[in-house]
Amino acid sequence: MANMVTVREVADQFDLEILAGEKGLSRELITSDLYRPGMELAGFFTYYPAERMQMLGRTELTFISGLTEKIRRERLRFLCSEETPCFCITRGQEPPEELVEEAGKRQIPILRSGTSTTRLSSKVTNYLEKRLAPTTTMHGVLVDIYGVGVLITGSSGIGKSETALELVKRGHRLVADDAVEIRQAEENYLVGHAPELIRYLLEIRGLGIINVMTLFGAGAVRDYKRISMVIQLEAWQENRQYDRLGLEEDRIEIINTSIPLLTIPVRPGRNLAVIVEVAAMNFRLKRMGYHAAQTFAQKLNQSLEDPEDFD
Amino acid sequence: MVEKTTTVNLKTGLHARPAALFVQKANQFSSEIFVAKGDKKVNAKSIMGIMSLAVANGAEISISAEGSDAEDAVEALVEIVSKEEL
């Protein structure tokens, strides 16, 4: 799924003045990169990244004003390509007449802002990165346990929501139940949040829909959380081998990001909430540098090499 | 995988009660069933998922299923949303 942002949305978001090309406000931005044409103004057009938002700051405009009229028109016309989403003039300067004419012909909007190019660029880039980030929806429950974002997955009716409820009772925070919207904020960084309509809600069979925020208070919920690990609940299968040591780490791929995965078998009598809670704690401990299973394995190795040391 | 796109004829759309019935029906099948509307895709067996889609009357949704009873599942669910009233 390809995300896109229209020029109108950017203009509204940053309160940009529209100087020309109103008809082109529905043009689409498909990349979060911005561009400050430099070489192009000097006549080099072999590698012009036209699909980006074109920023014209003091440097560019001063250079343009130093060109002869004929060359100026020619180069500015070249900047107005089929793909160019829009131009943005910064520091509240006046756009060159030729640009207004050429952009107007092709219905490319010219926007204006009072801030400097660098400041505006970083703000716009951040905004576009967020809006254009790849997203997906997953079936599961996202809970913040001791600051670790744990996505609990598993088939319907396995007890995800019940586990989440118990975790909330133990003082952890619910982010989303059943449908988790996941956005790749940056490389290897996934952020999950709840769809607006079902935010703070939890569905428990037999109880129906409950609102965790009104029942347990504002401390029991979070709006969004980075996903650090996935815990998959599955019905206990007799012939399947479950991890007994914790030496190996399984991983799961969500939008090009690989995340640690634990598979926990469900069987009557197993307190899932406690297991999930401890899994999150153990995950934290590992990140802090202590790996219980590895330390144990090392110790065992040592004692096998020098049995006497351990007498 | 079986997939079918359909228009929701339910007068109230997939309002809370119809959504509950829809999910109950979906839970009778062993297949993995998904409902997609626009760029959002959710598990058909989860009431919260279905409600988060906010499917209104006249909306176009696509129901897909994977598993041994996939065909029956899609058939049954399409039938629910294509009715005007439940």
From TrEMBL, chain A:
Keyword Methyltransferase part of the UniProt annotation: no
Region (Important for the catalytic mechanism of both phosphorylation and dephosphorylation): 202-211
InterPro entries: HPr(Ser)_kin/Pase, Hpr_kin/Pase_C, Hpr_kin/Pase_Hpr_N, P-loop_NTPase, Ser_kin/Pase_Hpr-like_N_sf
Annotated binding of Mg(2+), by residue: 161, 203
SUPFAM superfamilies in alphabetical order: HprK N-terminal domain-like, PEP carboxykinase-like
GO molecular function terms noted in the UniProt entry: ATP binding; magnesium ion binding; phosphorelay sensor kinase activity; protein serine/threonine kinase activity; protein serine/threonine/tyrosine kinase activity
UniProtKB keywords: ATP-binding, Carbohydrate metabolism, Kinase, Magnesium, Metal-binding, Multifunctional enzyme, Nucleotide-binding, Serine/threonine-protein kinase, Transferase
Catalytically driven reaction(s): [HPr protein]-L-serine + ATP = [HPr protein]-O-phospho-L-serine + ADP + H(+); [HPr protein]-O-phospho-L-serine + phosphate + H(+) = [HPr protein]-L-serine + diphosphate
Region feature (Important for the catalytic mechanism of dephosphorylation): 265-270
Record domain HPr(Ser) kinase/phosphorylase N-terminal: where: 5-128
Gene3D superfamilies found in the cross-reference section: HprK N-terminal domain-like, P-loop containing nucleotide triphosphate hydrolases
Family: Belongs to the HPrK/P family.
Note: Both phosphorylation and phosphorolysis are carried out by the same active site and suggest a common mechanism for both reactions.
UniProt subunit comment: Homohexamer.
Record comment regarding domains: The Walker A ATP-binding motif also binds Pi and PPi.
Role summary: Catalyzes the ATP- as well as the pyrophosphate-dependent phosphorylation of a specific serine residue in HPr, a phosphocarrier protein of the phosphoenolpyruvate-dependent sugar phosphotransferase system (PTS). HprK/P also catalyzes the pyrophosphate-producing, inorganic phosphate-dependent dephosphorylation (phosphorolysis) of seryl-phosphorylated HPr (P-Ser-HPr).
NCBIfam families xrefs: hpr-ser
PANTHER family per the UniProt record, alphabetical: HPR KINASE_PHOSPHORYLASE, PROTEIN YJDM-RELATED
Official protein name in the record: HPr kinase/phosphorylase
Species for this entry: Melghirimyces thermohalophilus
UniProtKB/TrEMBL annotation, chain B:
Keywords for the protein's UniProt record, in alphabetical order: Cytoplasm, Phosphotransferase system, Sugar transport, Transport
Cellular location(s): Cytoplasm
Pfam families: PTS-HPr
One record GO biological process: phosphoenolpyruvate-dependent sugar phosphotransferase system
Superkingdom assignment: Bacteria
Cellular component GO terms, alphabetical: cytoplasm
Predominant location category: cytoplasm
Domain HPr span(s) in chain numbering: 1-86
Job of this protein: General (non sugar-specific) component of the phosphoenolpyruvate-dependent sugar phosphotransferase system (sugar PTS). This major carbohydrate active-transport system catalyzes the phosphorylation of incoming sugar substrates concomitantly with their translocation across the cell membrane. The phosphoryl group from phosphoenolpyruvate (PEP) is transferred to the phosphoryl carrier protein HPr by enzyme I. Phospho-HPr then transfers it to the PTS EIIA domain.
Alphabetized PANTHER family for the sequence: HPR-LIKE PROTEIN CRH, PHOSPHOCARRIER PROTEIN HPR
Protein name: Phosphocarrier protein HPr
